[in-house]
Amino acid sequence: MKILIADDDRMSRRLLQTTLEREGYEVNAVSNGRSALQELSLPDGPRLALLDWMMPELDGPRVCQGVRKQHGRPYVHIVLVTSRESKEDVVAGLEAGADDYLTKPWDPAELIARLRVGQRILQLEDRLVEARETMRFKATHDHLTFLLNRGAIVELLERELVRTLREKRCTIVMLSDLDHFKSVNDLYGHLVGDEVLRETARRLLGSARSYDFVGRYGGEEFLLVLNNCDASQALLRAEEIRKVVAGLPIETMRGPLSVTMSVGVLSSSDWPLHNTEEMLCEADAALYRAKASGRNCSQLARPNVSCQAPLASLK
Amino acid sequence: MTEQHDRFLQIGVNLPELLSRVENDYNLLGELIGIFKEEFPRLLQLLRESITREDMKNVEVSSHALKGMLSALSVTRAAAIASRLEQMGRDGKTEGLTDVLILIEREVANSMPELDTYIAEMKR
Known about the structure:
The complex is a heterodimer of chains A (315) and B (124).
Chain A: E1 2-6, H1 10-22, E2 26-30, H2 33-41, E3 48-52, H3 60-69, E4 77-82, H4 87-95, E5 100-103, H5 108-140, H6 150-166, E6 172-178, H7 181-188, H8 190-207, E7 213-216, E8 221-226, H9 234-247, E9 250-252, E10 255-257, E11 261-267, H10 276-292, E12 298-300
Parallel strand pairs in A: 1-2, 1-3, 3-4, 4-5, 11-12
Antiparallel strand pairs in A: 6-8, 6-11, 7-8, 9-10
Helix pairs in contact in A: 2-3, 7-8, 8-9
Chain B: H1 2-10, H2 15-21, H3 26-53, H4 56-72, H5 76-91, H6 97-123
Helix pairs in contact in B: 3-4, 3-6, 4-5, 5-6
């Protein structure tokens, strides 16, 4: 594990370095507080630090304060090492953001034991961060396809539409629905249905650009948000993506299965006064027109065609 | 061994503590003493100048550094005197500073040759 030593005393640095290297630490030794703060600010900088209290340029407590001001970086466990031993000093050091305190001259066994405590705290923090990220992923992603779930994709769409309006650009909204998906489940079973949904998700992701968003909007419905697009290319782009999904049969446990998809597509620049909900309503209406015109095609939402109540039987 | 430790105690060096700190690594101990010998004259000079100028902040800072080095080598008696000097600097007490500094020099002059001899013996 990487560890930073910051001490202006050459003897202390040498002694600490040798002791810690013997214990298997990867030691980075600096002689002043400013260099210490720089090292601890690096993205892959050390997460354990032994800081001397009195140092040129920046003292140990001020380095602690600097480190604690940084956000978005993994936690750094800081031990202040000093010969200042009054209660007031201990309190001041800990209040500045240090996690622990060691008095010079230190005992090697105590030093190592305290660093092990620090490592245990860091491991605990890592596990908490990992758990939080897993929860965050689960809260925003669909468990079957691993695409963004409905809440997350609609939230992203809202954000993109605000940005698009501000930057006077165009976002393409694609609401797509697998044709006759119910019969896939009825004829081949839900496990095959799940395979079809997963492969469709994979194909949609593969046909989108890295900065586009793809989400599962409902059972067999998918929502794509394509940023910075040319409005005149909306229908063409929707057709390209639709053909990628329908192009090859999907390999399932019951053999290859051909699926098709209908798409309702909308260019945000055609609907500048509409909010997210209204645009989704218009894309949905276009999707139903695609279904009504024989499925396996795309329909563009045009302002002169009003948003009508969806016909559930068509899906 | 105890006899040797007692001898070091008499000259103000806590040998068991020092050996524990360097984990009985005599090469490392020799290296640390080498660093001390390079740094000590510089710090001493800084202290003398600060005392002459009655620059008490520098007296405090330099004696603090000296105390750290002496403590690391477990030269405990000299470290305690350096601590006294540091406190005098902090309190702004100018009287007797030179005498205390002379005491430190004397302590270091007593202990260093003993440590040198000891390391040379142990390395043999």
